[in-house]
Amino acid sequence: MSFSERGGAPPAELARYSFAARMLHWVIAGFVVCQIPLGLYMVARGEATNFDAETGSLYSLHKLLGFFVLWLILLRVLVRLRRGAPPPVATLTALERIVSHAVHVVLYMLLLVVPLLGWAGISAYPALDVFGLFDLPSILPADQALANRILGVHGLLAQTLGLLAAVHIAAALYHRFIRRDGVLRRMWPLR
């Protein structure tokens, strides 16, 4: 009988992600939890108010946070490539390992692609100004029709990212409270 079947705690020697990986995971998760509702709200507000000053500030905040997310996820990928990941928890079935790996790959891809599309979209619009303080660098020439297409895909993929993140969170909570197999503990920021 395993410790999860007994309802006990996972073994203390359970391999964890590196401190850098854990901190980056939680910081990026915090940004994503803020960015998706902020993006949905600012778009709805922009359509309802004809883009007033407060809406402009929301867009500036979204652009700035998205730019941070892009660089943080690039750092996270570098940490993952350099340090790797601990081996899968022994209690995971083969299917759970496959699904877990696939979800992580898609999350990484979306965390890279969504901010890049946002940056490309605001470059093509062009709407690179952040709070009237500075402009983000442009990565595409101005083309509003292209910008609208890119930003449409950006929004759709951001919502997909949100749904996949919710599945990821649900799986982590399942492992913490139902299976009690230590999966969440491997990424928990505190000891």
Highlighted features:
191 residues, Fumarate Reductase Cytochrome B subunit, 5 helices, elongated, disordered N terminus
Written account of the structure:
The chain is mainly alpha-helical. The protein has one domain (17-186): Fumarate Reductase Cytochrome B subunit (Up-down Bundle). Helix content is 70%, strand content 2%. The chain contains five helices and two strands. It has helices at 3-6, 19-49, 53-83, 94-124, 144-179; strands spanning 129-130, 134-135. The protein has a two-stranded antiparallel sheet with strand order 1-2. Helix 2 (19-49) packs antiparallel against helix 3 (53-83) and helix 3 packs across helix 4. The chain is elongated, with a radius of gyration of 19 Å. The two termini are 26 Å apart. The model is unreliable at 1-12 (pLDDT under 50).
